[in-house]
Amino acid sequence: MNHFKKSESSAPSGTKYLAFAEDQLPLEFRLQIVRRYGSETLSFASAIQSGLCHFANQSGYLAFQKKYGHTFVLGDPVVAPHEMDSIIDEFLKQHRNVTFCQISESVAGKLNRRKYWVNELGFDSRLDLDSYDFAGKEKERFRYASNWLNRRGFEIRELELTDDVQGEIRDLNEQWIGTRTVRKETAFLNRPMEFINQPDVRRFFLVDAAGKIQAFVFFDPMYLNDQVIGYVTTFKRRHPDAPSVAEQGICKEAIETFKREGKAVVRLGLSPFAGISDDRFRYNWLLKYVLRYYYRAGWVNRYFFNLRGHAEFKKRFRGENEKAYFASPGWVNDVRLFALIRLCKIL
């Protein structure tokens, strides 16, 4: 049975949940909802990423995609808190083989009570800006990076994406991808890079003495009650010849800027498969073993994705590491994981 709403012209106006095919739920409605309830790491990505399907009523939505007979929900539903249980239940009534990816402990608990297997997917680092600073020996490398860049004539600037800037960062992005093991843009859990101005996205650039962009870091907004409360790091790119301390210097400047503005939090995003202990919910022990093996495996880190290096960079910030979860209805996950990898365009 096809549950998708075919009209792309109207947002949901009642309490009944409707399924919208790829990009059919109006962007204006998605942004309206995410500004009200989008306080999680993937909230903004679930609204802005192209190619997603949505399940929605007037109170909110969840984002999902299908692959090889499996349905994958992206992050927590973006919905009024009192609607969280109902949107999960209604979605499960209409879809089979549903897996929830990179969800919070709160949503993981709801799925655990619905007899899902709930495994840790890694951790998400949170910086509480009211008390956060770069003082102390543990964060000395960030101060060193900033001073090193300043002494050599580099500047960190926040810029809009003019035509000239877009051209520069397209070239830089292509050169950066050429240095990666996976030489293409990923998707779903990491939204693809877009070279357009997007609402409330912040962009910080490292510019050399000649005025050329050498590196950049972009931050997606997090919201609550129509206010920006913080940011999530989304894209980090560095020219192959740029200083190795570029990202540390940019992140320090951006975080200090957000703190001066009175923002509450910065999230550094998921460190996949890092720090898995699975001590909170009923978990799939085989999946736990597989994910922990992938994190340690040299061949995975060398030829596919540098999981350990990714996590170590985020640990340098000395933030609070919050668990992110993966919830699946079945014990066997081989096809499910392969479908998710393909959905993320890693293979």
TrEMBL record:
Molecular function GO labels: phosphatidylglycerol lysyltransferase activity
Coiled-coil parts of chain: none
Localisation per UniProt entry: Cell membrane
EC number: 2.3.2.3
Ranges where the Phosphatidylglycerol lysyltransferase C-terminal domain occurs: 34-327
Keyword RNA-binding included in the entry's annotation: no
InterPro entries given in the database record: LPG_synthase_C, PG_lysyltransferase
GO biological process: phospholipid homeostasis
Keywords attached to this entry: Acyltransferase, Cell membrane, Membrane, Transferase, Transmembrane, Transmembrane helix
GO cellular component, one term: plasma membrane
Keyword Transmembrane helix assigned: yes
Main subcellular localisation: membrane
Bilayer topology term: Multi-pass membrane protein
Domain of life of the native organism: Bacteria
Protein name (Swiss-Prot/TrEMBL): Phosphatidylglycerol lysyltransferase
Organism this protein belongs to: Mariniblastus fucicola
